[in-house]
Amino acid sequence: MLAVDGLQAHYGRAHILHGVSLDVAAGEVACLLGRNGAGKSTTMKAIMRLLPPTGGSVRFEGRDLDGLAPHAVARIGLGYVPEERRIFPDLTVEENLEVGRRPPRPGQAPWTAERLYALFPSLGAMKKRPGGRMSGGEQQMLAIARTLMGNPRLLLLDEPSEGLAPVVVDRLAEALLGLKAEGLAILLSEQNPGFAASIADRAYLLETGQIRHHGPMAAVMADAGLRARYLSV
Amino acid sequence: MAFDWQGLVVQGLNGLASASSLFLVASGLTVIFGVSRIVNFAHGSLYMLGAYLAWTLTAHGPFAELGGFWGFWGAILSAALTVAALGALVEMLVLRRLYQAPELFQLLATFALVLIVQDVALLLWGPDDKFGPRAPLLRGATEIFGARFPLYELFLIAVGPVVLGLLWLLLHRSRFGILLRAATHDREMVAALGVDQKRLFTGVFALGAGLAGLGGALQIPREAVTLHMDMAVIVEAFVVVVIGGLGSLGGAALAALIIGELHAFGILVFPRITLVLVFLVMAVVLVLRPQGLLGRGAATAPVAAPAPPLPGPMPGPLRWAAIAAAVALVGVAPFLGDYPLILLADFSVLVLFAASLHLIMGPGGMASFGHAAYFGAGAYAAALLFKHLAAPMEVGLIAAPFAAGLVGLLFGWFCVRLSGVYAAMLTLAFAQIAWSISFQWVEVTGGDNGILGVWPSGWARGRLVFFYLSLALSAAGVLLLRRIIRAPFGLALRAQRDSPLRAEAIGLDGFLLRWIAFAVSAALAGLAGALFAYGKGSVFPSFLGIPRSVDALLMVLLGGVQTLTGPIVGAIAYAGLQEQLARLTDCWRLVLGVVILALVLFFPRGLAGAFRRRDA
Fold first, then answer.
1. Per the database record, which ranges form the ABC transporter domain (chain A) (predicted)?
2. CB-based contact A122:A158 (threshold 8 Å)
3. Mean pLDDT of all residues in chain B?
4. Which DSSP symbol is given to B130?
5. A216: which strand partners?
6. For residues B450, B456, B461 and B467, what is the CA-based torsion angle, rounded to 10 degrees?
7. Do the Cβ atoms of B306 and A102 come within 8 Å?
8. What value of ipTM does the predicted structure carry?
């Protein structure tokens, strides 16, 4: 479904991604694991073309994304939830969702605010609250819900568990498992392998802008040596 | 004297009416800025076009034939809609290509539009003032506390709140409005959610332009339509938007109210300093609350432009060509007539003026919209010394930079605390205060009549000698600036521009650096001003006017802010172009505007930058 091949990216003169290649199949949850600064967020941004890649290719459902503007990437079905969440602070929960709303996709039940309130009940209880006055966990739910309003075919989820209380992380995992069960493909990035293990099928281990290892999530979790080399601090 | 209640009420209502008109223009400006981060200099031109179009539509064509209520209001609304369409067109053809460009280039582009619209309006409507019809049903006056008050003014008072309410509904109840508010905060995220920003921006320009057009169209029953409406309204609208807080609709409404009433009552209390009063309020607000009354500060920090590389040496051939040209100029000068010599002396002065502004804009990283204040301060220092103490030119030329430098120290102390658009607006405010003083303090400055007979000393009175003198002093000034930019002071100045936090961490005092640079720049602008005064033999308030500040800005931006070569090339190109065009065609503004637009769109690094290798 998503095929990233030899992706290169620069910030100014700093070379961040050195040929990242990965695949996400339909209905699958893949996970990018790596420490701070490994290039997880940059990979996400380069796929969305928020940071235009300097080399390599990204194909989504067979279509080359080269030359597309970020809004066009979003329209063909890639939904992006940034690490910083980037909720619009002056807009209410409802209004934040409205910004994300796109027309339904054929063959896919469209997301509505009501369906999302059912998925994230805490959001339903604060429809009129401005985004700037929500807790971190609530903002994370809203960021995901807002992106889902665009009826994406694949969700790019950048470090969703970062800075959240354990109980909130559990609720988030539950919601994401629900999305997975509905057949939504997800590319997740995480530093926290425990959270990732609860939802991901496969893992890519990223270090200094390169994929060092990939395999089934369970195998990565079982290999203490791998985790020590690429994840522990 | 009995206390005049009636007068007060009428003045208060007058203030409300002008506040209402001001709000229409300022609200468009602030909405456009909020989303696109573009400060639209051409907003006043859209207002003027609205007025002219409304005049035409009420005088000719179907609406004029229809006449009466529907004819009049049909014409007013059609004028506003036409201006909205023009705004959308401008966004699609010009501004869309400039969203990634530095703020100042966007300003330059919109200023080019001002020039173009001025000439187009002159061509289409001619130089005579136009008087519109009075509004049907609103012709008469009503009695308020026994005083007669025009109905149309009452109607205008109601328009402001109605438009504010409609805008509020649009922003909070429509998808377009919600997207606009989201984009005001985080454009990139809006794009990542699949929203095509181009259409959003085109929409917001159409909306803002339509409001300006409506504001202009609504003026035709109460005042003459003139070619000066654009500059008059844009300055006031800027003041309103800055006082209210850029991007804040409520702030614009509040500030329009304050400024409208200030005008109305200022005339009663301080008839002589109404001009100063407005800018004084703006200066006070900016110093106490830099983000404006209801502004929220920069929610998204402006993306740091990639730091320009250190100015390297000029490419060899270009350097030799420049030196050869300078030598040839000195050698050829004795064979030139008076007129070319006057022109060349002017060019030297402008080069120094532009180069002095470059110090704060390039290495300093600040924008000044009021550099003419220091040019004028130098000119007036020389002229006042001559007028009151009969001081000769030598004394004047020495005193002028000091006088201008002192003014620079005073104004700079406030201005260098702010950044970006706010700093630019505060410099504009101070320049307008200085201009008002020169214009209104007639006993000392001679007011509009200026000070005449400020001629050079006997030995320098010949055109050739005076050109050499101007060239020598300007060259010395430019070389001094070059020395300053490359000295440790200049490096420190660039360091605080590129990374204020890191510069502070290594012990650099950014405020002090910027302040000194501001004063030095002012001093050299003052020298240029004094030379200009002796060259012309007189000084006038226009020496401190906005057009002259804009000239300096254009010269620096045309040349490119990265290197000192830039303003020199820019000054010669700009002044030369203006001079040649004024001789060749009546429409020099139109041609100049088109040239500036082309330069901004195709040479974003300025003229001097265009000659350098792209990877420099």
1. 2-233
2. no
3. 86
4. B
5. A202
6. -90
7. no
8. 0.95
